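cache lookup: miss for this entity combination. No prior model stored, computing from scratch. Input as submitted by user K.M.:
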Amino acid sequence: MPQIGSFTLLFALALSIYSFVAGIIAIVRKDERLGETARKAGIAVFVATTAAALALVVAAFRDDFSLAYILHHSNRDLPIQYKFAALWSGQEGSLLFWSWLLSTYGMVLRLRHKVDPWLVAHASVIVMAVQIFFLLLINTVAHPFALVTGTIPPDGNGLNPLLQYPEMVIHPPMLYLGYVGTTVPFAFGLAALITKYPGEKWIHITRRWTMVGWLFLTCGIFLGQHWAYAVLGWGGYWGWDPVENASLLPWLTGTAFLHSVMMQEKRGMMKMWNMWLIFTTFLLSIFGTFLTRSGVVSSVHAFAQSGIGPWFVTFLIIIFATCCFFFVMNRSHLQTEHRLESLVSRESSFLFNNVLLLVSCFAVLWGTLFPVLSEWVQGHKITVGPPFFNKVNVPIALLLLLLTAVGPLLAWRKTSLDSLKKNFLVPTIIAICAAIGLIVGGMRPWEDISYFYSLMAISLSVLVTATILSEFWRGGRVIARHNNSNVFAGMVQLTRRNTRRYGGYIVHLGVVFVMIGYAGVAFNQTAEQELGTNGEMRIGPYTLVNRSYTQEDNRNYSTDIAMIDVYKGGKKLDTMYPEQRFFKASEQRATMVANRSGVREDLYLVFAGTNPDTGRPIIKAHLNPLVAWIWFGAHIMLIGTLVALVPNMQLARVPLTAKESARAATEVQRAGSTVGAGD
Amino acid sequence: MTVRKPTRILQIAALVLAATLLISAGPSDDTRVNALGHQMMCMCGCSQILAECNHVGCSYSTKMLGQIRQAVLRGDSDAAIKKMMVEEYGTVVLAAPTTKGFDIVAWVIPPLITLVAIGAVVFVVRAWKNRKPPSPPSPPAPPEELDSYRELARKETEL
């Protein structure tokens, strides 16, 4: 297996170098036959990297501890799904996984070359350059098939217990699909710049690829949050750890691009801006990969420090220099076709949206790297943790939420004040009433800044919801009248006619639910107590009674389990089983959280430890309001993105009579100036 | 001047909200230990906030929280408690940069960048608006040109 893996990796590198060189020569000489061999060599790279990845997985399944990688990340008693996950749990394996995913994306790109052969030929070469970098890494300094020297131990060190959860089988692949997915839009963008591509077709192609990458990145980020919440046992889901931040950075710039690209498509504006957004998104993906592996910043998530940092720095410099070179050479091709005409317009709202997203990205990057800067300037380390990131980013997030409400109801080019009043009056009244209702219901924003932020988040979420629903309602009503159907059928057809716009609104609704979920954190409660048999503790409206505690044992781990009955108002609601496991191979402890999730709040129990004197369990209870809204919102974002990816329904054009034309024009006018204002 | 009813409702609602928000009260002393615990890092190496550390077998968090609790009961100020913890555990114990010395740069830069960026957008939009000269009236477009305008309108509205 090691020999097969090593050979296929070397073969993949050779093929990728051939594909790159032949691809460039074919473009320069306009040699189609040579270009075709380059394309097929690129597809063969996928076959070779697949073989290498399979070799590593088979080695894990066979417990081949002659491989150093398998020795350090697996053991005989590890369940099979986690042996599979060992592929990406270590540095070398994860880089191989990166390469394999990139070759998969590259293969799809090359199979679909007929969409625009000239552009795809350039994009393929660029993708192959990135492929070469990663294959060079794993063939030299991060070889996954390196052999153990000396005596081969009978068993491995096992997988980190924190990774032995079902979600950790999906979270890294989703995140990597997102990171790697930014390569293709980058390649298309750079290819369009190099070729001075006429028209905007390249942006249509790039936007879809970006949406796919963004979708996976979103899934990966929320899966990571859910894993942190369900597994780590601290009751939270985001710690602003550098590795977490590394995934957020390209997500923020990718989100900015998905918005501003509409300006380029509709109005031929923001071309230079969009080009640099694509470049920055890819650069940040590579930078994030570098951060997690170089040891530049410390993180609980990071891979062990290694010598690959300088490789990534060099690669980043080459990418940046290449982007700058072609931008300077060909920037005249990116001249804007129109100008912004008003501060109160759809274009301006997109511009402000982009600015805020990029400012947030900068703030996260700044906070992540400030400890390095501080040590360089002051000579001692400092921590930049959640208090900094929350203070800086929450106001920006609230401004973004406001723009989410305002932007879709503004018209392209210019919106009149009358139109603003007409569209925003009712939603604003509803939002203010919601705020007053929350204060009357017991929220005290003056007691703590976090309560104020929660109030603002929920009120603005109500505003966004009201504006989105009004968009669906007005458009659905117009179509329903035309078709003599009901409003909901009208809304469905409305969505099918413009999936990107209304899919985007569904994504915004998902964001609203997520923000409401985040707003609940200000009201979290915790309690910790030693509980003997029949011992009781209280948290919020719940009474927890420890009925018993016991121990169990299997080949992989031993575990302490508590059986906790949950009462509310004297009535038994549930029995929960928090655990603490000791994993034998790695000799590490980890908690298994017991979580009772509801629409209003989560009751979250952790087996925090055992009193060494009495042997009784120590139970830590959390009451976390609104957490379930986060996961629900994430699903809505996913659905909205999938809707946006579906092609628009094509309408058959039937000529209207003069009477029907006049009636349609009147109804459109009545529905308001922003209905049908495009996305 | 008559004011329309919905606008009046909006004005009243805004006044009520502003009035309730103006009432202020200081933070409760009962939350000081928790609040301070959320401003510091656990030094066991878990990279978690002190008050949230769930590192099984952690030998630091209980001790550190106990030190904070004793200091609060003694009547020490938040600043004095933080100084005490920094002297014992180093500057990395604080979960965020301070507002003294070079640390203040961490806090100043993000809002400064935000203001500059928003200001730049406003400036650019206004500059573009003012730059465009009024164009002379053009002759009526031929019918086939009107078709291209209709297509543009259809593309921009896409209902």
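stored under new cache key. The longest strand of chain A covers residues 542-553.
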